[in-house]
Amino acid sequence: NGSRITERSYHTMLAALPALLLGFYHYGMPAVGVACLAVSTAILWELVINLVTRRPITIGDGNAAIIGLIFAMLLPATMPWWAVITGTFIAVVIGKQIYGGIGSNAFNPVAVAVAIMMVAWKGLFDFDGMLVNYNLDFATLYPIAAAKHFGSASAESFSLWKIFLGQQLGGIGSTFGLGLLIGGIYLMLRGFIRWEISLTFLAGVYLT
Questions:
Q1: Residue 166: which of 13, 26, 15 has the closest Cα?
Q2: How confident is the model over 120-166, as pLDDT tens digits?
Q3: Alpha carbon distance, N-terminus to C-terminus of the chain
Q4: Cα separation of 83 and 168, whole Å?
Q5: Angle at Cα 169 formed by Cα 161 and Cα 174, nearest 5°?
Q6: What is the DSSP string of 16-48?
Q7: Can you tell me the distance from the alpha carbon of 39 to that of 154, in angstroms, rounded to the nearest whole number?
Q8: pLDDT tens digits, 127-140
Q9: What is the C-alpha to C-alpha distance for residues 156 and 7, in angstroms, rounded to an integer?
Q10: What is the pLDDT of residue 1?
């Protein structure tokens, strides 16, 4: 079971690379720093909680690294260091370990961390504001924010294809739709994701 978790973590990190690398390309070294800090501190929190609770050391299975990586992918490249560390603490210690670890947590640890941080520090997830100093080769405004503040006609300036290719503001690794799709297909082919679940989830979102 442990080797299966390790294998899953390895392939999940590989699947995340296309979307993550585009984020690095767009946002540069600040994005790399956020990702490295998130992964390393997630592993550190896992080690600390293992030692405090006198449980077997589990950082070798890669699950904590995955939590840190996915958390980083949802953050703006300018996220302060203290917020990254706080978020990985919430994800690993509260979202995962307090519930009993892998297989016991009622909610996705990263989702728990993001939800709590968005309530506590909403401004940190205002991508329009957090990324305002970037001079990118595409519109530096959320399409939905443009429609909200400037009317639905303003959304016509956005190309769905370009958005699918990652030309939109957002988290470091959450905007490149094609890259995420490639990663998802890879995980399906490796047998870590069931295509039925993914397809019905996307269909539910689309229909509603």
A1: 26
A2: 999 999 888 888 888 887 777 777 777 777 777 777 777 888 888 88
A3: 37
A4: 23
A5: 80
A6: HHHHHHHHHHHH-HHHHHHHHHHHHHHHHHHHH
A7: 38
A8: 888 888 888 877 77
A9: 43
A10: 53
Residue 162 neighbours by CB under 8 Å, 6+ apart: 138, 168
Instruction: Look up residue 80 and give its amino acid.
Output: P
Q: pLDDT (tens digit, 9 = 90+) per residue, 2-50? A: 576 788 888 999 999 999 999 999 999 999 999 999 999 999 999 999 9
> Between 104 and 77, whose confidence is greater?
77
State how far the Cα of 158 lies from the Cα of 160, in Å rounded to an integer: 6
Count of CB atoms situated within 10 Å of the CB of 104: 10
- Please report which helix (H) or strand (E) contains residue 144, including its range: helix 143-150
Phi, psi of 136, deg, nearest 5: -100, 165
Task: For the chain, give the longest Cα–Cα distance.
Answer: 59
Predicted TM-score of the model (pTM): 0.88
Q: How many residues does the chain have?
A: 208
Task: State the number of CA atoms in the 13 A half-sphere of 195 facing the CB.
Answer: 7
Is residue 5 a contact partner of residue 13, using CB atoms and an 8 Å limit? no
Phi and psi dihedrals of 153, rounded to 5? -65, -30
- Report the alpha-carbon distance of residue 202 to residue 205 in Å, rounded: 5
